[in-house]
Design brief:
two-stranded antiparallel ribbon; 60% helix
């Protein structure tokens, strides 16, 4: 029988209410919005405009072949920026106070290859509930057997060289996502140690429909409209997704799999910290003062 993992620490019971009170005070005192500020809106328009422009430039073949390849790499990176700058916040309901705006911006996730429904299950629900907990948070299961993220795990011979090949594996993130990950997660009965109830019937249709739209935009139309051989297209397609995957992979790891964060095992199906305290112990901020 499935038993949800519990966070237990009565001594920390006031941590989350106190934290919420201080956060509320921060916004009230400075009279600033909790949602997207003008710079965030500018960034949204900028990234979406760059992505559409690069796509049109590539699909119309107005550039020399080598420059099309460069444009493809830039498009991949831009789609990664859209994913974690715009869609991530929108799907958390944080971008806007208007649910329709969040839904519309979150929907872009489907257009750039990911599935919003699967993301909600794996990221919003499971990952943020059980961050960095072995056998619960599948986000830290990075190429099992190839990449070791928990220093308490036994290291195999291959993993002694993971500092050499890890970046290449990170770059495969998006190729795996568009062809494998969403399907695998959708049809699993458990994500980590969390039981997945029956999906709504409409989500089966959406999964395949949105994937078909992505394949049409980034495989079918380029092959039909561009004067490329299949191998030239393949080089561009793979290069774009390797660039996108590397950016996403690095950002994912920097948030949770670094020296100062904890990767934990549950003790008798429990974590001996309050949930909010656990979040701080397992999550890292990075480059908070960087202008870039």
């Amino acid at each position: 029988m499935y038993k949800p993992l519990k966070f237990k620490n009565k001594d920390q019971s006031m941590f989350l209410p106190t934290l919420k009170e201080r956060v509320d005070h921060f916004f009230d005192e400075r009279q600033v919005s909790r949602h997207a500020n003008p710079f965030m809106i500018f960034k949204t328009v900028l990234f979406l405009s760059i992505a559409v422009s690069l796509y049109v430039v590539i699909i119309t073949s107005v550039l020399p072949l080598f420059m099309q390849l460069i444009a493809g790499i830039l498009l991949g990176m831009t789609m990664a920026f859209i994913g974690f700058n715009i869609c991530h916040d929108a799907l958390h309901g944080a971008y806007s106070s208007n649910k329709k705006v969040n839904k519309a911006l979150g929907f872009i996730f489907n257009i750039i290859g990911a599935n919003t429904y699967v993301w909600n299950l794996t990221h919003n629900i499971v990952h943020h509930s059980y961050t960095n907990i072995i056998d619960h948070d599948e986000d830290i299961e990075i190429a099992p057997g190839l990449i070791r993220v928990n220093e308490s795990d036994k290291i195999n011979k291959l993993q002694r060289y993971q500092h050499i090949y890890a970046f290449f594996l990170y770059s495969l993130t998006m190729l795996s996502w568009i062809f494998r990950k969403d399907y695998l997660k959708f049809f699993k009965k458990n994500i980590g140690n969390s039981h997945v109830n029956k999906h709504p019937g409409a989500e089966y249709v959406k999964l395949f429909l949105y994937k078909a739209i992505y394949y049409a935009l980034f495989i079918v139309l380029p092959l039909l409209l561009m004067s490329l051989s299949w191998w030239q297209f393949l080089i561009g397609f793979v290069a774009m997704h390797l660039a996108e995957g590397l950016v996403l992979g690095l950002v994912f790891q920097l948030a949770h799999v670094v020296e100062d964060t904890e990767i934990r095992h549950a003790d008798n199906n429990a974590i001996h910290d309050a949930w909010a305290v656990h979040q701080l112990k397992t999550t890292a901020n990075f480059a908070p003062a960087s202008r870039l």
